[in-house]
Amino acid sequence: MIRRRFLIAVTVLLAVGQIQVIAQVPKEPVDIARGVPQFFVDDWLVDNRFAVKYKHNAVVHSVHPPQKHEANPVYRGDCGYVNVARHPESGKFQLWTQVHYWAEKPSGRSSRYAIAYAESKDGLSWDSPNLGLFEWNGSTQNNVVIRGPKNARASGPQILLTLPDEQKRGFTYVMAYRTGGAGKEHDGIRLIGSHDGIHWDTESEVRLKHVHSDTLNSIVFDADRKRYLMTCRAKDRYRRFKGQMIDTGASRRISFLTSDELWTEWRGSPKALLTPDEIDAESHYNFLYGMPVHHYAGIYWGFLWVFRMNDPIHTELVTSRDGVHWRRSPKRVPLIPLGEEGAWDDGMTFGGPHWVEVGDQWWFYYAGHDGGHDTEGRKAAIGLATCPKERLIGLYGPKNGGGGVVTRLIKWPGGDLFINAASRGDGAAQLSVRISDAIRNPLAGFDHGDCVPFSGDAVRHKVTWRGDRSMAELEGKVVRLEIFLQDMDLFTIVAE
Fold first, then answer.
1. pLDDT tens, residue by residue, 298-352
2. Is the terminal CB of the chain with fewer CB neighbours within 10 Å at N or C?
3. Where are the domains of the chain?
4. What residues contact residue 107 under an 8 Å CB cut-off, 6+ apart?
5. Radius of gyration of the chain (CA)
6. In this structure, are strands 299-307 and 313-320 parallel, antiparallel, or unpaired?
7. Any idea which fold 27-64+393-495 has?
């Protein structure tokens, strides 16, 4: 009986391990779609990577945080967690942020939250219109667009950008937010629709989950899995009541829920997703405050708020291919670091749930604070950080001799091969591509020596070979790409 139980346990462990391997390694040949960038934020598409002078060099992942804009902060005034989108027709920048004040009561101060609105033509100069829709802090002269049920709390706004059209129910925008203090039938994470981003249809509003998750709770749609995923806190079982830590437990971790449907009460209890680890513990960042999430090009992009209680919070990029197994930032480089001491954002940075694409750039809006979590009288503002599109994490080939990146087998969908790559600019840089078969035999005319080398900086560079040959002639073929990098960063490849 003992041996039988042992074998069952081993079988279960192997099965679980196999599920994890399947989740992290794609089936080959990998089917890639035309026009969809293939990122090198991880080794999903990589069969091997190595340096030519391999004893003291390697091809490694490298983080490229967006640069804070010189006009920062771009928005001042009452603000908090921030969400920015562009109107799909007019291109107008629209901003939603939570606002807050303390109401004096006989029993003491009480916190009030609502969601406010601003707009901009260029994403830098913002107008906060006087809308007069709600009473707020004793006046209707404000830009508040959402108050919770019974005028209770409304906080943590997220516009759901990846929804299928049929799930928008005719609305231009669908927003998730949290309310509390409105009663058990209303409290929790809610969903509401709007045609213009200003007037929100309360008749459309539904509650998704009754859980006291007091952070920005983020929802994305995974088109590949036909599934919705929500990140939140497991407040159904941790910090449910006041008491000693051994009894209440820690709730500032990242948990998740999934659902096949959106506009309905989500079932189940939040499951643990991310917990601070040994590297976090070295610098006492033992809490994860929240994680807004975006889904793009088959990747979950998490903007993790890493918290050292009870002071600073910064934003770190984390990624996942399935929404369950996550990769932390290499060397834990912050995506949006704290400002220098004395700066307007030297206490906390809360990255928004997605970027805004502007030309060939990605724009990241974030809420910054000039004090830590428990700093009395701290002030908030909204900042902007930008980078060339797709350039957050890449693979770097060493300056000394260079190195190779060999992809898994790919079924080429047709079109030319374009790369997003850049030279470090401090030495002899070069990138070339060889096309090979399953056992790395080069295809005739597609070797490194045939490739027209690249040594510049481009978000879309067409790779060609001698005689103006391109990968367009390899449509439907199963091949490997072997990319030589010397003092170059490679971010994406795409068939177009």
1. 999 999 999 999 999 999 999 999 999 999 999 999 999 999 999 999 999 999 9
2. N
3. 27-64+393-495, 67-388
4. none
5. 25
6. antiparallel
7. Jelly Rolls (2.60.120)
